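Researcher: Next entry in the queue.
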Amino acid sequence: MKKNISILTLLLISILAIGQDRNLNSYSIFTQSGWVLPTNNYVRGENNLYTPISQIYSLSIRYERQTDGSQPWHQLYDYPSYGLGIYIADFNLRNQLGTPIALYGFFSSYVIEKPKWSLKTEVSAGLTFNWQHFSPETPLNDAMGGAMSCYIDAGMSAYRLIGKKLEIGAGLYFTHFSNGAMKKPNKGINAFAPKFILKYKPYGNVEYKTSHLPNFESKIEDLTSIFIGSHNVLTILPRNQVDKQYNSHSYIVLGLDKRYLKTLTPKHSLGIGVGLGYNQYVGTTYYVEDRQMVIRKANLMERFNLSVYLSYEYKIHKLNVFIEPCYYVYKSIYDNSKSFFQRIGLRYQITKDWFCSIGLRAENFSVAQYIEWGIGLRM
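Model: Structure for this entry, 379 residues:
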């Protein structure tokens, strides 16, 4: 654990050292003490100590960069800020979930800004390590399937300026940990917690610049992309039938997508899309033979699917948040997934034409199927 913290701290310090225009930089620390939501059996009390995991405690240090209006998108989004942080958490029961450590990025924007106080929304996302996760030695843990997960945190805080260089803040935030079904079981951890923040601004408040925003022209964008991912299948059989009770396999998913989006405003786009997918797991069955697990695989064509969907994008400079309600117009009879599924994620514009993306595919608006890692061309 100490080694992980040292590596993350050194990485954050090296990133901070690169920054220019230091008068735009600030540094903060926050602490939280809140409640774990009882969304799965393990946190409800079906663990080694037969006690609910009901409390979460966390600490984070962050580097933040305030926009100043030097680029048009700064003004368009009311002078937001963004940055990086290191997060560490613990729970009221020791040695049941570990001590998760996260490295994350965040984006914050003003709801209200006054000379002495402000109200801001904030969204954070990153990767979390150092979990005590499911294994044959800890078979009760259905909350976290692997040693790594995603970290998502969102909420709102009020800030008060103290002097010229210090701010204090407080707010309420929702936190979610999940691995996107890369390792199962994957019920996830959800928490609500107040956040108390102390921010240091070495150069005081930023002086905003204003300039004429370019005229907006609506257009049709053509997005072509491919993705790859994997999902894990955990099979548990009665001990009296097999020598090995737990059997875990990962399966590849691939996809090719075509989208047409119309830019409605500088921030919003809406369109339609069609996707061709391949799921290696479809048609795979398990059975027992001579006390050993045997896997029967389907033929190649049974693993393909075709879907159509609506696509919505919210643009933040080079970063786009997308939400897509989707429907399979074709899938194999061996595919037991729901015909209606959802996709949410991020697209980042690497160059004028090329982008990369990460998306979470889910069903019932709550059950993760897998994470899609993509690259594509926007025309």
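Model: The chain has three helices and 18 strands.
Researcher: Noted, moving on.
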